Each structure stands twice: as C-alpha cells, then as structure tokens.
Amino acid sequence: MYGHDIIVIGASAGGIDALVKLVADLPADLPAAIFVVVHVSPNSPSLLPTILSRRGVLPALHPADGEEIRPGMIYVAPPDQHLLIKSNFIKLTRGAKENRNRPSVDPLFRSASRVYGPRVIGVILSGTLDDGTAGLLAIKVRGGTTVVQDPEDALYSGMPRSAIENVEVDYVLPVSEIASALVRLAREQAAVAKEDPAVEKKDIEADAAELDMTAMRQMNQLGRPSDFSCPDCKGVLIEVEEEGLLRFRCRVGHAYSTESLIAGQSEAVEQAMWVALRSLEEKAAFLRKIAEKLGGREHFGSERRFELQAMETERQATIIRNVLLTSHPLDVEGADSNRRVSVGPRSALEAGEPPRSAD
C-alpha cells in the first residue's frame, strides 16, 4: 500500500516566504515527492529552486519534460510552463493560461489527483485571488488530503480564504505547523482509490492544459455557454459549476475563477480605455493639422469647424485620461481582508481531527 507520497503546493503573493519556512522544516527522509507552483514572471529566470535548496535539506530543481518522479525531491514549475503530473513522470506544457497565470496552481493539482487520487496532499499557501481552489476541490473529490495556510498567518489571505470557503479543508494551519503535518501524513497509509463517474469532467479539464484536441471538442460538456467572452481570446466562455464553485472556461482552454475573470475584465476595460485615449489624441492632432492647413481668410469657416472638432475630441480624451489617472484596479483581495476565520484549537492536528473553520 502507498502512503501520501505526492505533495502539491500552490502559492502566489507572499507565498515564497511561507514556502521557504515550510521547506526548512522538512526532513531528508521524507517519503514523498513535492511539486510547487508559485506565480512568477514569464520573462525572467526563477531562482526559487536555488533558494529552497539552500534553506532546506531536500534538493529542489526545475524539472525537465518527461523527468521521472523521485521521492525526496522538490519539483518547481519553470516560468511560463504548466507543471503537470503523469504516472511516474512530469509533463511540462505551454497550454492556455488558467486564472491568468502560467504556471497555474489548478492544472498541477488537477493532474496530480487524476493520476494518484487519495495519495495526493494539496497545500495552499499565501496568495491573492483564488487560484488553487478548483484544484484543491479536485483533490478532495478524489479522496486526497487538503491543507491550507491559516489566513491569519498568511501575508495575503486571498487564496487560503477562497479555499476554506469553497472546499471542506482537512487542515487549516499556520505555516510553522504545516511541515510536521505533511511528514505525518506522508508516512500514513492512503485510502484506496474509488471510481467516481462525476470526475470525468475533471479529466477533460486536465487534458485541456495540454491543448488536447479531443478535450477541446468536449469542452461544451463541462457546462452551458455563458453571456461572457474570454478576456484572452475573446471566445465564448462556458459556465462550469461544481460543488457550488462557479468557474469559466473557453474552447481553447483559458480558465477563470470568478475573481480572476473580474480581474481579467477590469484589465480588458483599462486596455480599451488606453486604445480609446490614443485614438482620440491622434484624431485631435489630425484635426488641428488640417485646421492649420486651411488657415487663411478664404478657408476661415472650414478652419473654425476643424478647430471646434479638435477641441471636442480633446475634451473627450481628457475625460478618459482623468478616469485612468484617478481609478484604481479592482481590489478583490482587499474586499474581504477584514474578515476573520477561526481555525480551532491547535491541538486538533495531534488529535487526528481537522480544525474546523467558522461559517
């Protein structure tokens, strides 16, 4: 029988600090492989494997595509590539972004649960918005174990709070207690996997991360077409709902939680406003150029008409410029930053029962 030998960890803003603390407390004989996704810039190298290797005893690296999975290793998603888990090996892909990120937490979690089921431990650390929630739900549905950093302990509570609110999380712990929980769970026997027809849709989503053509043709099976378009490719978004969690996917695989879709739409609106501002500025400059060309007594009427049009165009441009200067990005993370989650007594872990969060 197997233990919980596949540990997947997702984090975003503030997550590197939490991850370093967690890894520093893991022993060299940990009987599990660890897979990490942290949202990073796609345009610069990541030093995270070097940082983790220096702070802990377990070696960390960016894996190669097709690399064999070995226990006692930390595999970190490279920039601009999804990290997926196959049977005994790793798959890297530049599939569509999920929750506006590549690498994204959800594809890693979903792929791990598909192959290893109850043997998987999913961990959510500090981060904004809600990437990882759908993936953690996939792990839970297939019998895996879920661990979330206490939102009160996280530098950014968005990802942990979203996971707690949408998934029946097994353990909610400060980062200082997560390593010991993982060590204990890794040495415990995992449950036997059970077949569940309801997970077939998750397989479609897992394949979509690899731009699988069959999965793309089956995307409509995930839900019904929504009234909204994909911020990335402008295709129709399919509304996906499971266990009360609402998400959206387009035909080619872009995926959004509700919060990431709102953020994507806000970004699209801002981009449209910049385009509008540029167009109005160019139009005003052109109208003034024409007015100057028509300068003189014989074209006075035409010159004045073009000047008035230029003034009106500049007025419209000023309105848009003021909106861009005074508006602020939608602060989804800050919207619920004052809420508090009770994680129960810290002795619950030793008692073998997960702390419960308050409603």
Task: Give an account of the 3D structure.
It is a single chain. The protein is of the alpha/beta class. The protein has 2 domains: about 5-195 and about 340-350, Methylesterase CheB, C-terminal domain (Rossmann fold, 3-Layer(aba) Sandwich); about 260-325. It is built from 12 helices and 13 strands. Strands 3-4-2-1-7-8-9 form a 7-stranded parallel beta sheet, with helices on both faces. The chain has a 4-stranded antiparallel beta sheet with strand order 10-11-12-13. Strands 5-6 form a two-stranded antiparallel ribbon. Strand 10 (about 225-230) and strand 11 form a beta hairpin. The longest helix has about 35 residues, at about 260-295. The relative contact order is 0.12.
Fill in the keyword field for this structure.
elongated, 7-stranded parallel beta sheet, alpha/beta, 4-stranded antiparallel beta sheet, 359 residues, Rossmann fold, 40% helix
Q: According to CATH, what is the class of the largest domain?
A: Alpha Beta
Protein structure class? alpha/beta
State the fourth-level CATH superfamily of the largest domain.
Methylesterase CheB, C-terminal domain
Helices and strands, in N-to-C order? EHEHEEEEHEHEHEHHHEEEEHHHH
Main sheet strand line-up: 3-4-2-1-7-8-9
Proportion in β-strands: 15-25%
Q: Average pLDDT across residues?
A: 86
| Rg, Å, rounded | 25 Å
3D shape: elongated
CATH architecture of the largest domain: 3-Layer(aba) Sandwich
Distance between the termini: 37 Å
Main sheet specs: 7 strands, parallel
In total, the number of strands is 13
Q: Flag low-confidence runs.
A: 329-359
Helix content: 40-55%
Give the oligomeric state of the chains in this entry, treating copies of one chain as homo and distinct chains as hetero.
Answer: single chain
Number of helices: 12
